[in-house]
Amino acid sequence: MASQLASGDLVSDRYASALYELAAEKKLVDSVLNDLSNLKNILKDNKELSLVVKSPLISSSDKQNIFETLLKKINANELTNTFIKVIEKNKRFSNLASIITQFININSQKRGDVIADITSADELNDDQKNNITNQLKSILGDKLSLSFDVDKNIMGGLIVKVGSKMIDTSLANKINKLKIAMKGA
Question: Which of 24-38, 79-93, 146-160 has the lowest mean pLDDT?
């Protein structure tokens, strides 16, 4: 399973890198970034669409038709439309969310932003997000790009990832450490 995850990340990284280079060459990075951010929000807000994208039972051409309609609604750039056609041709719709995330990360890195991923057990309210943002900005600087995710499996607490560093204050991690300590006793 770990090798599948690594190869999925590799595929997403390659597609995102290729799209970023092409967008930079055509001076369309901001436009493509806006289109992909809109698609990411649509996928995040619409669980049924996320399931359709990941489903092997629905053909790539049907998925492309759905995305062509979505891209028309958001008035997407021609490069974004072409990219979705490439995704369809190579049957990579299951990697789409990961490709979009990787594209956003590449853009942030190129602009000199520090990227931090915050994972919590429950959805954080605006005050909590602002508090975390302010604390991290005081440590890491103003060029900070945050993404907030929810993972019920961590039970409580937070996981903060910045680059290759991770601070895991999740309840699941603490329980694991306690289990290990109990085995050693």
Answer: 146-160
Q: List, for residues 49-102, the tens digit of each pLDDT value.
A: 888 888 889 898 899 999 999 999 999 899 999 999 999 899 898 899 899 989
Report the CATH number of the 2-109 domain.
1.10.520.20
Token look-up 């289109």 returns: 35
Nearest to 167, CA basis, from 143, 122, 135, 142:
135
Domain boundaries, the chain: 2-109, 113-184
Q: What is the pTM of this model?
A: 0.67
Cross-strand bridge partners of residue 147: 117
| DSSP H or E run through 161 | strand 158-162
Q: What are the start-end ranges of the H helices in the chain?
A: 2-25, 29-45, 47-54, 60-73, 78-89, 96-110, 126-140, 171-184
**161 strand-pairing partners:** 117, 166
